[in-house]
Amino acid sequence: xxxxxxxxxxxxxxxxxxxxxxxxxxxxxxxxxxxxxxxxxxxxxxxxxxxxxxxxxxxxxxxxxxxxxxxxxxxxxxxxxxxxxxxxxxxxxxxxxxxxxxxxxxxxxxxxxxxxxxxxxxxxxxxxxxxxxxxxxxxxxxxxxxxxxxxxxxxxxxxxxxxxxxxxxxxxxxxxxxxxxxxxxxxxxxxxxxxxxxxxxxxxxxxxxxxxxxxxxxxxxxxxxxxxxxxxxxxxxxxxxxxxxxxxxxxxxxxxxxxxxxxxxxxxxxxxxxxxxxxxxxxxxxxxxxxxxxxxxxxxxxxxxxxxxxxxxxxxxxxxxxxxxxxxxxxxxxxxxxxxxxxxxxxxxxxxxxxxxxxxxxxxxxxxxxxxxxxxxxxxxxxxxxxxxxxxxxxxxxxxxxxxxxxxxxxxxxxxxxxxxxxxxxxxxxxxxxxxxxxxxxxxxxxxxxxxxxxxxxxxxxxxxxxxxxxxxxxxxxxxxxxxxxxxxxxxxxxxxxxxxxxxxxxxxxxxxxxxxxxxxxxxxxxxxxxxxxxxxxxxxxxxxxxxxxxxxxxxxxxxxxxxxxxxxxxxxxxxxxxxxxxxxxxxxxxxxxxxxxxxxxxxxxxxxxxxxxxxxxxxxxxxxxxxxxxxxxxxxxx
Length: 639
Fold this sequence. Notes:
Elements: H1 9-20, H2 24-37, E1 42-48, E2 54-59, H3 66-71, H4 99-105, E3 108-114, E4 121-127, E5 130-137, E6 142-148, H5 155-159, H6 164-181, E7 186-191, E8 194-198, H7 205-213, H8 215-219, E9 221-228, E10 231-238, E11 250-254, E12 257-259, H9 262-272, E13 284-289, E14 295-296, E15 307-308, H10 311-327, H11 332-335, E16 337-338, H12 350-357, H13 420-423, H14 431-434, E17 455-460, E18 464-469, E19 472-477, H15 478-491, E20 500-509, H16 512-520, H17 522-527, E21 531-536, E22 539-545, H18 551-566, H19 573-588, H20 598-610, E23 624-627, H21 629-635
Parallel strand pairs: 1-7, 11-13, 16-23
Antiparallel strand pairs: 1-2, 2-6, 3-4, 3-6, 4-5, 7-8, 9-10, 10-13, 11-12, 14-15, 17-18, 18-19, 19-23, 20-22, 21-22
Helix pairs in contact: 1-4, 2-6, 9-10, 15-19, 15-20
């Protein structure tokens, strides 16, 4: 008797659905991506009970004919590709033809659709993967997919779902990321009869960010833009003063597809590594556009992960773009953390606020309304769907992405509210400090070189320096400021951290395996400013260390280094070097409680403003807090 047998179609469909539709958020994602591929300008999602009992996705895309509507629920039926070669040139979000079939096999689904320029729509009713009816129906242009009782016929999978609130939160988060990938599309999420998410769909990323994260968060974002060969990077990153406790507000988009990618994440982390504390994560939205043939999107059932043909090129592009944006913010009002966060529109710069206040443009007549181009640049006017080349899609064509150097776009293109010219102008208090100058002896009286210098007024609690810059009031943390100065001086030594020979070597006990590991990494440790030798099976003798580190400090450093070496993802040599320099800079910096005179304060401020990142210490704490006259007025209830 044969042991191997062929599974029936229903069982095979339910197994396939488990790979594609693990929970309600996966079903919503697949349906919304279909709507984007169909050229929709408005997408509305409605859910109940976390999407388990009911979910609906409605769009105003190209719609489907009766024949296509019936074929759409058949496994591996797709309009996006025709041959295997098309997989390597994918410009659409969907291409496998599994989503609708997988959702239909584990729910009671109804598809109502009407193609453009047709008088009658079609309604297809499916239950557990079996077509129940195909009937004519009145419907607007576009497609509506309703799925009720998700996983009703696979209770084992339903048992592993989280609470209604958790599942709804995942859907909201996912829809927000898709909205940031498509700022030209208006998204709306209704949860249990209440609208919880809505984006304007006017093509401006900053407006989408404001709708999702609030005006204050949007006001703390900086624009990023770079291109190299055929790779184009655009997006926004947060100032180091804006931190979150998790990576949920980090969005990576590749060719309009929201993905998870360790190469890009690590590049951003490395660019921020000397600006953030260990327990904080920056907010960013980065959209990378590369030729479709240079990226493989077919490596994960849910298309969540991708692979690049040249990982190093992508890493360099992202790292240098983010680092350049962070190090170009030199004006005090941009580097200093504001103590008072205004609510509402006051949190944004004036020109950005004017952008947010603009209502969504009035839609044009149906015959003239252009469909959303899934792969166009942010802010560019949409291209009529199917006008550009590409592979086959539900409407006949999929537009191809514009690669290569960025071109001039229409007047409505979003532009950052503050350009680098303004940040680096001669009016900046840092303009002269940024010029190459010979190092001055510590605490020497330095004449003011700027029109509006930062003037020290005094010291509070032997810890904070009170300064005036124009009409603004600055408070500077003297320890954090000196940490930044010392860190940058150590960082200038390309050969490594200078080693100071210890007069009395210290002995540190460790596990024999850890001793062996340290002996293997002696060269790496020497670049960190630490030299040692083995003094026994479980003992090492420290013979050299960075200056200002005591014996107890060295023991802690060695323990932390061993933990890092044992991590699954071993930190890069640059990250390890940063940790050591930050620690050494902290130990030797001016402490809270050290009194300073005006001359010493002036010299410390001058040194601080000569550093690459004066706004935070190496551990990510702010060095400067700014009070504007308006903020001071609010404290005294003058406004």
